[in-house]
Amino acid sequence: MTNARDIFITEVALRDGSHAIAHQFTVDQVQKVAKSLNDAGVPYIEVAHGDGLSGSSLQYGLSRTNEMELIEAAVSVADRAKIAVLLIPGIGTVKELKEAAKLGAKMARIATHVTEADVAPQHIAAAKELGMETVGFLMMSHMAPVDKLVEQAKKMESYGADTVYVVDSAGALLPDQVREKIRALKQSLGIHIGFHGHNNLSLAMANSLVAIEEGATRIDGSVRCLGAGAGNTQTEVLTAVLDRMGIHTGIDVYKMMDVAEETVAPILQTPQEITRDSLVLGYAGVYSSFALHAKRAAARFGIDSRDILIELGKRKVVGGQEDMIVDVAAEIANVKSQEML
Ligand SMILES: CC[C@H](O)CC(=O)C(=O)O
Ligand SMILES: [Mn+2]
């Protein structure tokens, strides 16, 4: 085994986990988590609102703390790790990207729906000009057949992305589907391939390992599963499993366990687990970040949140269409009240 990393893990709890705690991170929390991740040897730590730069809004959920303050706090303690930011074109703009870069963010992950890579070139180019490492992040990858995914990934490559990710936003992909997607990308592209899983069907670890088997070298994880829905591939577990497999991540297994137990667990009001809502996200193929919104809409209209999520899955709703959650809930409540007459 050499000292070089075989697999580069990006820790996403301080961005994807923002969904799970309704965007309530404080500077103190981010600083403590980022420092302990940095000290454990995690190479990339993503920090932003759950919906990426500029996501704080009534539609997506208001942040307790300005994300630029959070990024600055993370940068101030990361002397080894690079701080990454996520940007969904249209929610975030080049202006916020420049601000984040000025504060010291070194990686930009430009996220689009899996069929919409075309909206990314401007932001990828801007990130490159700012000297940032760039990632094309193809969300809701379960919604595209392999040839479509390859077409879109090639676009990301042509725009200058250093890496392209298969993003299982809904936690809906099965291992064989991950296998064929990553295999096809590996055969067709000359850049790094990454995988971002959600654990709604309890497959995030299996899917991450399959992705690695097929040649992915960039894998996302969230410590203590602090991510949307049931969370992501659990970073401390992934680190231990890869170590057992002789795959070098550069992360200290004991220190990573300590981050989970001592720094992140106390932040969670309830442990991240596969609840019936997160299970339905994976089962119906719905965005993991929709879970909290659906729960609130269900309470407001006195209906079962699973009915909302199943209907959203049928309608193939994509990220950015959060307003549909309340529409669907109102429709279901209306139908139910008609039935009771
Ligand atoms: C809404 C952005 C989303 O949370 C990005 C992501 O992590 C995913 O699609 O899984
Ligand atoms: Mn995610």
UniProtKB/TrEMBL annotation:
Major enzyme class: lyase
Binding-site residues, Mn(2+): D16, H196, H198
Enzyme Commission designation: 4.1.3.39
GO BP annotations, alphabetical order: L-leucine biosynthetic process
Pfam family, one: HMGL-like
Catalytic reaction(s) noted: (S)-4-hydroxy-2-oxohexanoate = propanal + pyruvate; (S)-4-hydroxy-2-oxopentanoate = acetaldehyde + pyruvate
All copies of domain Pyruvate carboxyltransferase, residue ranges: 7-257
Protein residues bound to substrate: R15, D16, S169, H196, Y287
MF term (GO), any: 4-hydroxy-2-oxovalerate aldolase activity
Record keywords, A-Z: Aromatic hydrocarbons catabolism, Lyase, Manganese, Metal-binding
Annotated site location: Transition state stabilizer: R15
Entry keyword Secreted: no
Catalytic-site annotation from UniProt: H19 (proton acceptor)
Family: Belongs to the 4-hydroxy-2-oxovalerate aldolase family.
Record-given protein name: 4-hydroxy-2-oxovalerate aldolase
